[in-house]
Design goal:
alpha/beta, ATP-binding, 19 helices, flat, aminoacyl-trna synthetase
Amino acid sequence: MTNINSKIKEILINIIADFQKEEIISQELNLAELNFILAEPNIQKDDQTKYNYATNIAMVVKRFSTKNPMELAELIQQKLILNELIECVDLAKPGFINIVLSNKAFLSILNNVLDSKINYGSNLFENTDKYIVEFVSANPTGFLHVGHARGAIIGDTLVRILRHVGFDVIAEYYVNDAGNQINVLIESTKVRYFNLFDIDLQMPEDCYRGLDIVWLASEIKKEYGDEFLLDFELKIKKFREICISKLMDKIREHLRELNVSFDVFTSEFDDIYNKNKITPIFDKLKNHIYEKDGATFLKTSEFGDDKDRVLVKSDGSYTYFTPDIAYHNDKLSRANKLINVWGADHSGYINRMEIALECLGYNKEDMDILVVQLVRLIKDGNEFKMSKRAGTSVTLADLLEASSTDAIRFTMLTRDANTKFDFDIDKANQKDINNPVFGVQYAHSRACSLIKKYVPNSPEAINDDFDEKTKKLIIQLDILPDVLRSVAQTKKVQLLSSYVMNLANAFNSFYSNTKILGSESEASLMIVVKAVKEVLHNTLELLGVSAPEQM
């Protein structure tokens, strides 16, 4: 069902279409590209608090008419007031149109929410786009750290929202298990494994020295005993598979604890190299590659890169760029839209990957790349730097031990991905209304409590004459589909957490200042409460956060 905001936008567009027929507005105006604002007035003077919406449409279409904005606004006003969803229309210079919704409109919003239930705000896009959202994709060389947690939460939430609004979405993890980092992992784990049998092997300079490698070696010893002490080189393939498998199992375990799931795990080694996904891309790239000094280059400088990029080195081996191109080519054989959630250390890689897609014959607009900036953990006012598990940077497991999944997810969704973020453990764990996730969950539990206590009369006397504060709360419910549409278009998941915080604040204020149970308007107000509860629950679900019924 369409929300009221969208219905009024449609009414306004139809009015402009009528004006084109009446030659009040030129046919040069393309209605499909008409972009105007319809929102709550930003500045509310005492005599303006009644207005639910304001629009600038008269000023936007002015350049397609001989009439001035106020004259156009008056003509729009005359048509708007005839609609049953609208109670009153007032004008303000230089051409703003202020709208008061009718009581029928407010009941329509509530009924829309309650009839739609979990599907409220769903299926907003009627197209066949299929997305692959690739996120986390951490090397299987150790435990996930805090930075991975932020990317995991953002990627998982985006998947949930895109599915809700109507897209076919695959959540995918790319396992980088074919590069030199795996050789380093094997050598590091081998040394720790041999050390457990009092065999004094020295750790090379460039090896992984974290406690997660000690854990991995201990797990291998526990399960396989001394199997790998003799003829190690003959058993290295099995040792490699065990190392990657055990670390990926641990990565999956920690992601599940964070309420993050994937549909597909694509292995660089098994799915790209072993399935020969690399060789075919050279045919697709043939007009954009050349050989020099025994190496093969991609002409990325022709597309604005600072230099051409090597695909095949003079020794015949691939650079890391080449299997990445093959992987993106493979993804675009399975979907027509890609979203990559990358860490800030990959920022310089974005341009060349977009160029590679163009060289393959794709449109670079078919790929969105979200850059996730670094996270600092703050505890007792100081940065919390060291992991007790890994002996290196703070791991996801450390974070999950220090705070709840709900607090971690919600807090990390309150900021733009491309801004550095301080996660204050003490604030995230506060059990009061000043903690955003607590405030939202508390609002939900309050609504649930009222619903449990409510004993309806038969028949219920529904009074649709809501006061202004209640109307503002109802308008908040109507906004959700527009917020979800914006998230799907911009990929900014923080818009949804901001929305639900505003809704929770509005409901908590309504709850504290309104007599609900036992009032003359009890039945009507309880419809509002039920609708708020539904939207809070659904929004928290989209954010991957629980919605407790009591706190």
